[in-house]
Amino acid sequence: MQTQLQAARDGRITEPMQRVAERENVPAETIRREVAAGRLVIPANITHLPPNGQLEPIGIGRAVSTKINANLGASPVCSSEQAELEKMLWAVRFGADTVMDLSTGGDLDEIRQHLIAHATVPLGTVPIYEMIVARNVEDLTYDDILATIAKQARQGVDFFTIHAGLLREHLPLVKGRLAGIVSRGGSLLAKWMQHHGKQNPMYELFDEISAIMREYDVTYSLGDGLRPGCLADATDEAQLAELRTLGELTHRARESGVQVMVEGPGHVPFDQIERNMKLQHEWCDGAPFYVLGPIVTDVAPGYDHITSAIGATAAAYHGAAFLCYVTPREHLGLPKREDVRQGVIAYKIAAHAADVARGLPGARDWDDKLSRARAALDWQGQFATAMDPDAARAMRDPELSSDADYCGMCGREWCAVRISREVTGTPDADRTESASQTSAPGVDGD
After folding, report:
1. What is the pLDDT of residue 24?
2. Are 312 and 271 part of one and the same domain?
3. Is the peptide bond before 266 cis (omega within 30 degrees of 0)?
4. Domain count of the chain?
5. Which of 220, 103, 231, 102 is nearest to 165 (CA)?
6. Which among 317, 332, 357 is the end of a domain?
């Protein structure tokens, strides 16, 4: 069995490539070429694809629309298998392109299998979390690492976050940081290296891990264990040293026939985002960049879906292909269902805004469709086309009748849109029927 990367390099267009091409409205040969070059990945474990699973393949790369990920997962403190399933379905309903199971509590095997069985989108994990559930990280062995990765690959996980770029020689660079190491995987491996006085086992085992991933066509998401956790630590030597190593590992993964994307920051001042995107593109040979935010200010806990969506828009415009959402509960606790909705919508806005700004073909059609409904005073058309129809309907003035073609801000006589239509001679009866009958992409308007 060939991976998507191997098939693309052999000139073959696979069924997942064809599905991605249809979804993105681009030629299948374009998808094949981008996959072959490593600039686009299709996370699709052979076990998760039909007929064994119900995965709908997606493409992640600059040649297609910007994608977003929603993190899920039970913690040792709260949540459950059913709660995480509900959050996953909720995230997908509002437009998440992928999900990650970051569970650290409960029966991790059972939770993961339950999510995979119901996931129509690619699902990722951070395997080291399971590796240390029943043991101290210092007791982790090479055999434990490979066994866990092999088991999760067999279950159908589509992409793994592997923190192989954080090396022992990078640890002294962290000492001057304000926030230190904020990545869970990164901190665990740093503790292992310090205890054993050895190199990162993920780096040492990279070829063996690649062999497992190649067998099931699992995609690497090379983890940024030294991502900055505050503005003061952004773009420092620790972060950049790891990024250079991630560039080396990108080439090694591709040589093994394994698809690879690279993870990035983190907390980054707005003016440093462009530089971060360009450095990754250069050092990692155009591999899709998967960023958390970036969060552009540290002072707004409770609103970090906003602080990060600002950075995410800039990141996607300047080079990122994949955005990991941040919820309002970031830095505060495990997200609830409503937090998931707010995080997904914030990132759908960020991704779409970036796609419009970079001139992606067809991206602005959605905006123009809603604008036609707005100009025609077609409220039902606006609701149907909105990114979140339910929220738009709920904010409509309850004092107005359902067929009123104005809002409560100006009223009928002061409505600028109505006055403009009188000036231009546009009939009030004009309505955008197509907008009224079609819901926004990826959102159930019921």
Report:
1. 97
2. yes
3. yes
4. 2
5. 220
6. 357
Q: Which amino acid, 227?
A: R
Q: How far apart are CA 271 and CA 61, in angstroms?
A: 23
Exposed, middle or buried by CB within 10 Å (0-12, 13-18, 19+), for 230?
middle
| Backbone angle region of 293, left / alpha / beta, with phi > 0 → left and psi within -120 to 50 → alpha | left
Residue 79: predicted pLDDT: 66
Of residues 292, 210, 206, the one with CA closest to residue 259? 210
Q: Are residues 296 and 320 in the same domain?
A: yes
Asked if residues 101 and 125 have their Cβ atoms less than 8 Å apart, the reply is yes
The 10s digit of each residue's pLDDT in 336-374 is 999 999 999 999 999 999 999 999 999 999 999 999 999
In a domain, 87, yes or no: yes
Q: Do 77 and 17 belong together in one domain?
A: yes
- Element (H or E) spanning 78, and its range? none
In single-letter form, the type of residue at position 363 comes to: A
pLDDT, tens only, 145-196: 999 999 999 999 999 999 999 999 999 999 999 999 999 999 999 999 999 9
In a domain? residue 442: no
Give the residue ranges of DSSP H helices in 99-174: 108-118, 128-131, 142-155
What is 306-317 written as a DSSP string? HHHHHHHHHHHH
Q: What is the pTM of this model?
A: 0.93
Give a yes or no: residue 444 inside a domain.
Answer: no
Residues 313 and 400 in one domain: no
| Terminal CA-CA length for the chain | 42
Q: Does residue 338 belong to any structural domain of this protein?
A: yes
The DSSP output letter for 253 is: H
Collapsing DSSP states into helix, strand and coil, what is residue 163? coil
Parallel/antiparallel/unpaired status of strands 60-61 and 40-41 = antiparallel
Instruction: Note whether 342 and 394 are same-domain residues.
Output: no
Domain hosting 183: range is 4-357
Question: Which residue, of 329, 357, 385, is where some domain finishes?
Answer: 357
The rounded average pLDDT for each run of 10 residues, N- to C-terminus, in the chain (446 residues) is: 97 98 97 98 98 97 98 81 91 97 90 95 97 93 98 98 98 97 97 98 98 98 98 98 98 98 97 98 98 97 98 98 97 91 98 98 96 91 94 86 77 83 71 46 47
359-370: buried (b, 16+ CB within 10 Å) or exposed (e) per residue?
Answer: ebeebeebeebb
The two tokens of residue 103 are 């569970």
